[in-house]
């Protein structure tokens, strides 16, 4: 990783406290925004893991940024952050003046020079790709500086939720009629895409294989221990999550880091 540090390394606990403080102060998003709230509560552990590991990465790019909570959080921690997505920038990104470029990362070259960034993050995005994610991940490699860090996280195809659904005769993917049977493709450059669904979830070894094929080294990947952020009596519901997370392969998320 680059030697220029953003700040004195923060502990995981401090990062967590800072994120909760930013949420309570409505810096991350205003109260009453249900989609933002759901994303924040379900993603906190992932975002903290990313923030902890990217502390030495001054300039970061978030690909498939969606609502933009992660780049806004990283900016609050002192990073220079830019964002890319196929859809228009969210109101949060515009409000926080996060530089944004509209780009279809599945097939378009990222609109940046080689070696521009210290880190590239891609959260819960690759599972929405209709075609192979290799082109995009090679682009992550290209825009990273030597020694730069890539982060990707994806749903775990063999998590407890998926295994339990299959045992009950249900599929692991999204609603069949809405997202597969009747959905119309998004046409782009003469090709069809289906971004509004999970087209393929991943196993741990598949994520490692993808990063290696894209040219990354020093790959570290694992089933992330994560739980939904809850308050008050709702915390009791985390007991079930803790039991599930006690078996790593049953956890819902795979996270991986690699070096350029």
Q: What does it look like?
A:
This protein has one domain: Vaccinia Virus protein VP39 (Rossmann fold, 3-Layer(aba) Sandwich). It contains 9 helices and 9 strands. Helix 1 packs antiparallel against helix 2 and helix 2 packs across helix 3.
Short description:
The chain is α/β, with parallel strands linked by helices.
From the structure above, extract its key features.
9 helices, 21% strand, two-stranded antiparallel ribbon, seven-stranded mixed sheet, Rossmann fold, 260 residues
Helix and strand arrangement:
Elements: H1 12-24, H2 34-53, E1 59-63, H3 69-76, E2 80-85, H4 91-95, E3 100-102, E4 117-123, H5 134-143, E5 144-155, H6 160-167, H7 176-181, E6 186-188, E7 191-193, H8 204-213, E8 217-224, H9 238-245, E9 253-259
Parallel strand pairs: 1-2, 1-4, 2-3, 4-5
Antiparallel strand pairs: 5-9, 6-7, 8-9
The best one-word shape is: globular
User: How many structural units, i.e. domains?
Assistant: 1
In oligomeric terms, what are we looking at?
A: single chain
Look at the structure and give the CATH class: Alpha Beta
Q: Taking strands numbered 1, 2, ... along the chain, how are they ordered across the largest sheet?
A: 3-2-1-4-5-9-8
In whole angstroms, how far apart are the ends? 9 Å
**Could you tell me the number of beta strands?**
9
In terms of per-residue confidence, which ranges show pLDDT below 50 for 5 or more consecutive residues? 1-6
**Approximate helicity band:** 25-40%
């Amino acid at each position: 990783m680059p030697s220029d540090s953003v700040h004195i390394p923060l502990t995981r606990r401090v990062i967590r406290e800072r994120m909760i403080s930013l949420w309570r102060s409505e810096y991350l998003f205003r109260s009453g925004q249900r989609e933002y709230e759901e994303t924040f509560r379900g993603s906190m552990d992932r975002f903290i893991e990313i923030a902890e590991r990217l502390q030495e990465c001054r300039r970061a790019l978030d690909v498939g940024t969606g609502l933009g909570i992660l780049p806004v959080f990283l900016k609050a921690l002192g990073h220079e952050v830019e964002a890319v997505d196929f859809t228009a920038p969210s109101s949060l990104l515009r409000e926080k003046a996060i530089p944004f470029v509209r780009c279809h990362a599945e097939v378009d070259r990222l609109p940046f020079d080689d070696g521009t960034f210290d880190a590239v993050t891609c959260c819960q995005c690759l599972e929405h790709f209709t075609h192979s994610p290799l082109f995009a991940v090679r682009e992550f490699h290209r825009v990273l500086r030597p020694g730069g860090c890539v982060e990707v996280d994806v749903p775990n195809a063999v998590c407890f939720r998926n295994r339990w659904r299959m045992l009950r005769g249900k599929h692991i993917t999204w609603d069949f009629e809405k997202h597969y049977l009747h959905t119309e493709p998004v046409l782009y450059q003469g090709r069809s895409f289906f971004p509004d669904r999970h087209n393929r979830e991943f196993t741990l070894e598949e994520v490692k294989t993808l990063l290696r094929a894209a040219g990354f080294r020093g790959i570290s990947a694992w089933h992330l221990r994560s739980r939904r952020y809850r308050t008050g009596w709702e915390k009791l519901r985390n007991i079930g999550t803790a039991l599930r997370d006690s078996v790593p392969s049953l956890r819902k998320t795979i996270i991986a880091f690699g070096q350029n």
